[in-house]
Amino acid sequence: MRNPSAFFQPMAIGAPEPLREIPVKPSRMIHFLDFSNEKMVAKVPDIAPTVDILLGNLEDAVPVDRKEAARAGLVKVGRDIELGDTQLWTRVNSLESPWVLDDITTIVTEIGHKLDVMMIPKVEGPWDIHYVDRLLAQLEAKHQVKKPILVHAVANGSTGGTRANVRRWTL
């Protein structure tokens, strides 16, 4: 647990300073996409202006044999397609999965500057959020991401929306 006096200090040397207020952006319409599907990727320029958030889903809705293709598709969209005011989010695989570390490191390395929010599914407690928060800060510092990537934690079943003392929450 961090000392409260250091709460608004970066979690890693060279990481962006934590936001003091979480920006409130419209999230009236979120479009979840499996970017391993090339037909969906081709439609992104038409879909993006009609939604507030494009969310590249890497988790349960993506079959195991397409996990890496979905991650690569998300990177391609983030790198090659202009989204205008549409936010780019991703839902990575759960923290106990064999894909999550590659999800997080690849996404921050390749398109961290374009990503607004990283959704973390099946969070079991504050320790999960602290882990992701520190890892993101280290990767942001290493890859010179200027604005912190926000975290949207989805509680696992009976944990009932556990919130940790973290500086990156979405609303």
Unreliable spans: 158-165
Calculate Rg over CA atoms: 15 Å
Categorize the overall geometry: globular
Beta-strand portion reads 15-25%
Q: Biggest sheet, open or closed, and with what strands and sense? A: 5 strands, parallel
Helix content: 25-40%
SSE order, one letter for each helix or strand: EHEHEHEHE
- Secondary-structure-based class equals alpha/beta
Distance between the termini: 23 Å
Strand order across the biggest sheet? 1-2-3-4-5
Number of strands: 5
The average pLDDT score comes to: 88
Count of individual helical segments: 4
Molecular structure report:
Mean pLDDT is 88; it is low at 158-165. The protein has a five-stranded parallel sheet, covered by helices on one side. It is of the alpha/beta class. It has helices spanning 38-47, 67-80, 100-111, 126-142; strands spanning 30-33, 53-57, 87-91, 117-123, 150-155. It is 31% helix and 16% strand.
